[in-house]
Specification:
Layout (H helix, E strand, L loop, with lengths): L7 H11 L10 H14 L2 E2 L1 H5 L7 H10 L6 H14 L3 E9 L12 E7 L3 E4 L11 E2 L6 E3 L2 E8 L2 E8 L4 E8 L10 H9 L10 E5 L3 E6 L2 E6 L2 E6 L5 H10 L4
Antiparallel strand pairs: 1-10, 2-3, 2-9, 3-4, 4-5, 6-7, 7-8, 8-9, 10-11, 11-12, 12-13
Helix pairs in contact: 1-4, 4-5
Length: 259
């Protein structure tokens, strides 16, 4: 029996239900910010399929099935790719952008290593629900001063090769770059090659170990192969993951994910 493909309106409503959003659907900055935060509170950043040997396919049908129907998360291509489609259906003007992630040894990773979104309202806004522990509200692009966000401070500056999003490091007293990007619109298929590399290359950090993390109303919860980290404001609690079945039990308890 052939499965009925959901209609666009039904898909949108199911997605909004998944992220627990019940507000206005008008394309405004206020609503964009609310949708952005709700997405981060509801859909985790995770790389579990890579360690299960399940190929990650860049298609809207695959995103909807995994994030909405299976109530899973994903990494940047899935999360931002899916969120872009939702925003477009709601009437927002959205473009996918290629971003190069800052490296610990200096410099930036190759093009298409990360996907971010450009949303155009009265101003241009940087949107990203797929970068793990990052900003919770859209960042204004045509503004090079600092922008406070959930206790942290960010800025977007122009530099040779594009624009750079940085976060202020209080301990080091420096601006630490997060990623560099240009405003050239990209298509989903342009990210396919790098997405395959992220899944297959032994040099991909997504291959190093399992990760699942999500913003919470009180802080953040993060699960790796070795530990569970729960932050509540300034308080941080770490617990080791028991070897036999511990990861799966914590995944069900904290993220409601059963593999």
């Amino acid at each position: 029996m052939k499965t009925r493909r959901p209609r666009p309106a039904e898909t949108t409503q199911q997605y909004l239900k998944r992220i627990k959003y019940r507000g206005s659907l008008q394309p405004s900055l206020e609503n964009l910010a609310a949708l952005h935060k709700n997405h981060l509170l509801s859909v985790p950043f995770e790389n579990l399929d890579i360690h299960l040997g399940r190929p990650i396919v860049l298609s809207q049908d695959a995103f909807y099935r995994k994030i909405v129907k299976q109530r899973r998360g994903g990494f940047c291509y899935e999360l931002n790719g899916s969120f872009a489609a939702l925003l477009i259906r709601l009437g927002f003007k959205v473009h996918m952008l290629s971003a190069q992630v800052a490296q610990k040894i200096g410099g930036f990773s190759p093009e298409f290593d990360h996907m971010v979104l450009l949303v155009t309202l009265k101003d241009h806004w940087l949107v990203d629900v797929g970068f793990g522990d990052s900003y919770t509200e859209p960042k204004r692009l045509d503004y090079q001063e600092s922008q406070t966000d959930n206790g942290r401070v960010y800025r977007v500056i122009h530099r040779t090769g594009g624009r750079v999003l940085s976060r202020w490091d209080e301990e080091k007293s420096i601006w630490e770059p997060q990623y560099m990007f240009t405003l050239r619109p990209r298509k989903l298929e342009e990210f396919v090659r790098r997405c395959r590399w992220q899944q297959a290359s032994p040099n991909s950090h997504f291959k190093k170990g399992r990760l699942c993390t999500k913003l919470t109303s009180y802080g953040r919860v993060t699960l790796t192969d070795k530990k569970l980290i729960v932050t509540r404001g300034q308080k941080r609690i770490e617990r080791p993951v028991m070897r036999r079945g511990g990861f799966d039990r914590l995944l069900r308890k904290w993220f409601a994910i059963k593999l």
